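Ops channel
N.P.: pipeline sanity check, posting one input/output pair.
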């Protein structure tokens, strides 16, 4: 317990008010999200093999997001709140990759479930192309993390946007060929997917493009993959300056809140 207190005291030392408030909020979210997942585990309407698989996938996502909330970081800039081995960029990115693949599989399984309820077997088959976009995106993400090239991080975001766009199209077909709660949930999914795509195209991609342009204009030298791997494992830049975190907090906060809540909520969708 004393080592844990030391870790947090190191992070608190010298941090400004904005970082402290944001970090406390993230830690509170981590606790809340774990409690919500446990509530669904013990009291939620989890049914069938689909429900059990969704619960397991969501559990991985919830735990990794809790870890990343307690020890936040920005990959390419190597920013961390707390300078500890557990804040390793390489370690955090590895955990995030596993979690995001789990979340992508949840989305594919959700469309598959709704397609089954709507009696659309071809949509069920097409549903498994949804996570393909997100899985491929992980490769672009790793390239950006290891080379420090923001252009492939922008590509990663575009692939997520493409995956959600395809999911929205499949959900639109389900909404037109179903009724009741299946149609309502499909419409809700369309609205959520559309909002996510709009956010990515208006916030994430322009941010990474600006960082790419800044890197090019400042003469940033991109790393070879092997050197980048060592750098990601060893180098961390601890900072409690809110100006350094502010831009990334705009996507990290909804990621660790709304993203996790959606993951947990998906568990409760009845199996066909």
């Amino acid at each position: 317990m004393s080592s844990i207190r030391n870790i947090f005291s190191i992070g608190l030392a010298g941090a400004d008010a904005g970082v402290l408030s944001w970090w406390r909020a993230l830690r509170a979210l981590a606790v809340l999200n774990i409690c919500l997942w446990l509530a669904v585990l013990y009291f939620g309407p989890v049914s069938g093999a689909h429900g059990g698989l969704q619960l397991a996938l969501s559990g991985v996502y919830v735990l990794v997001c809790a870890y990343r909330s307690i020890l936040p970081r920005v990959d390419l800039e190597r920013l961390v709140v707390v300078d500890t081995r557990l804040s390793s960029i390489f370690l955090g990115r590895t955990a995030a990759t596993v979690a995001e693949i789990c979340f992508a599989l949840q989305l594919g399984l959700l469309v598959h479930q709704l397609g089954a309820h709507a009696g659309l077997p071809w949509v069920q088959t097409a549903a498994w192309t949804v996570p393909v976009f997100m899985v491929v995106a992980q490769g672009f993400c790793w390239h950006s993390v290891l080379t420090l090239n923001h252009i492939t991080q922008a590509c990663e975001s575009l692939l997520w946007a493409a995956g959600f766009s395809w999911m929205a199209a499949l959900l639109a077909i389900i909404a037109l060929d179903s009724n009741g709660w299946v149609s309502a949930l499909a419409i809700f999914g369309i609205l959520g997917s559309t909002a996510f795509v709009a956010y990515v195209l208006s916030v994430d991609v322009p941010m990474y493009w600006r960082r790419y342009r800044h890197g090019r204009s400042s003469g940033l030298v991109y790393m070879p993959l092997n050197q980048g791997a060592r750098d990601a494992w060893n180098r961390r830049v601890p900072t409690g300056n809110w100006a350094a975190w502010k831009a990334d907090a705009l996507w990290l906060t909804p990621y660790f809140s709304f993203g996790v809540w959606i993951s947990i909520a998906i568990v409760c969708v009845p199996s066909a």
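N.P.: looks fine end to end. The two ends are 46 Å apart (CA to CA).
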